[in-house]
Amino acid sequence: MEFAAGQVDYDYEIKASDGAILNRFAEVDGESVEIGNAPADTAGEDATQAGGQQAESTAPSGSAAAQSTTAAQTTAAQNGNSGSSSITLEKAKSIALGHVGLSASDVRFTKAKTDQDDGVKEYDIEFVSGNYAYEFEIRASDGKIISYDREQAETKGTTASGSTAAAKYIGVDKAKSIALKDSGVSASNASFVKAKLEEDDGIYVYEIEFYSGGMEYDYEIDAKTGKILDRSAERADDD
Predict the structure, then answer these.
(1) What CATH number is given to the structural domain containing 211?
(2) Closest CA to 155 of 141, 168, 142, 165
(3) Rounded CA gap, 210 and 185, in Å?
(4) 159 domain residue, yes or no
(5) Residue of 134, 132, 130 lying closest to 106 (CA atoms)
(6) Are 148 and 170 in the same domain?
(7) Structure pTM?
(8) CB neighbour list of residue 139: distance below 8 Å, 6 or more residues apart
């Protein structure tokens, strides 16, 4: 019995009465080599291995198939996860921290969520460190920073005693607590989308926004006194 696989020709002598292999040869580039006396059920494996070895030895190293495989392996290694088409939220946070040279222990995250902008998936990352608040938009597909902003947070200068004016502010957590108490919403039922210190006509206020039970709540709270300066509540699906 003779047959070919790839560029290898095989020649087998098989006993008709019981199917036992009497002789087997593989011919490569005109040179005949005896395969050896293996059990009959390994004949196909021998042929496959021999054919695979020949194909590997004769395939040009610069072939399109080889280049394609190498490129795919390189891309997978760079991504760190060949089975994922986008970075994770934790990776996005790491990218943001690396951009400003901070570690997770140096900051307090105020927002870390997935968003869509014109059909493009991105991550909104916000955190506070020292006297500064940082905001990032990071594209999920490749981790590219789409936008970045840094602004001064809870500070307005230094007093004669050396303590910052931030000590006079109630703090963002207190402002959130005031808003929740006024709205009658518990912290466990609220989903905050904004909680930050901003200046409004020379007055520092906390802008607090959160969702609960299909409602959207917006608050402006005086950063020094905790007084509610403005509030609104409307259905989340209203324009």
Answers:
(1) 3.10.450.40
(2) 165
(3) 10
(4) no
(5) 130
(6) no
(7) 0.35
(8) 120, 121, 122, 145, 146
